[in-house]
Amino acid sequence: MIEIKNLTCNYGNNIVFNGINLSIKKGSLAGIVGPSGSGKTTLIKAILGVVRPIAGEVYVNGKIIKNNPPPDIGYIPQLETIEWNFPVTVEQVVMMGRYNKMGRLPWAGKEDRKKVQEALDRLGILEYTNHHINTLSGGEQQRVFLARALVSEPELLILDEPTSSVDLKTQHDILHFLLTLNKKGITIILITHDLNAVAAHLPWIICFNRGIIAEGMPEDVFNPEILKKTYNADVAVIRKGHLILMANATPFND
């Protein structure tokens, strides 16, 4: 699904990372973890075509990414980056995900409205259809953006900190829902700072700090040596059966 070859990205005179190589297979469910400023979000933006690399290439589904992402990518940004005072309803936000499916007509058709209602219902927020987006809780807002991504019928879904600013139950519900989507064939990549959540839910982890430190199953990459290289700090790893718990790291969003 994703092939990254010798990718180098910068902001001004600052090289964020240099010569990245990464392959992600179709049908994967992967988490990217790392400290603040490690380049996780820049990597995702390069995949989306928002950040232009100074060297290397990104391919999604065999197509090279240049200035714009292909229509088969769904993207959910960090909630903190959204302008919540923009006068828009829940239905209107979700309908944005159908724009590249509408063809030449600049307005939503019957099928578009049906898809939007189905997505809202599936995520348990149908009752908020006509509510202003800023009246919703953090968990409800996250479900709205999940619905917006799903109505575009993506093959690849990318999420930036989908469980930040939500309670533990909502966090569990979102991750469980992503597992359900993944089982239906959608490739999913998410950035997160919550090591314990991804250890419990995700089958593949990419530890990232201005480069790929390690990648593999949680039981393989979540060990003190790799986590210290990733976070430049000591991290205690407690194992009990299939359960992995980590403490003493201080990862933040980047």
In short:
The protein has 254 residues and is an alpha/beta fold. The chain has helices at 40-48, 90-95, 110-122, 138-150, 168-183, 195-201, 218-221, 224-231; strands spanning 2-11, 14-24, 29-33, 55-60, 63-64, 73-76, 156-160, 187-191, 204-208, 212-216, 236-240, 243-247. Strands 6-7-8-3-9-10 form a six-stranded mixed sheet, sandwiched between helices. Strands 2-1-4-5 form a four-stranded antiparallel sheet, with helices on one face. The protein has a two-stranded antiparallel sheet with strand order 11-12.
Your description of this structure?
This protein is α/β, with parallel strands linked by helices and 254 residues long. It has two domains: 1-72 and 156-168 and 183-254, Rossmann fold (3-Layer(aba) Sandwich), CATH 3.40.50.300; 84-153, no CATH class. Helices cover 30% and strands 27% of the residues. The chain contains eight helices and twelve strands. It has helices at residues 40-48, 90-95, 110-122, 138-150, 168-183, 195-201, 218-221, 224-231, and strands spanning 2-11, 14-24, 29-33, 55-60, 63-64, 73-76, 156-160, 187-191, 204-208, 212-216, 236-240, 243-247. The strands form three sheets. The chain has a six-stranded mixed sheet, sandwiched between helices. Strand 7 (156-160), helix 5 (168-183) and strand 8 (187-191) form a beta-alpha-beta unit. Helix 3 (110-122) crosses helix 4 (138-150). The longest helix has 16 residues, at 168-183.
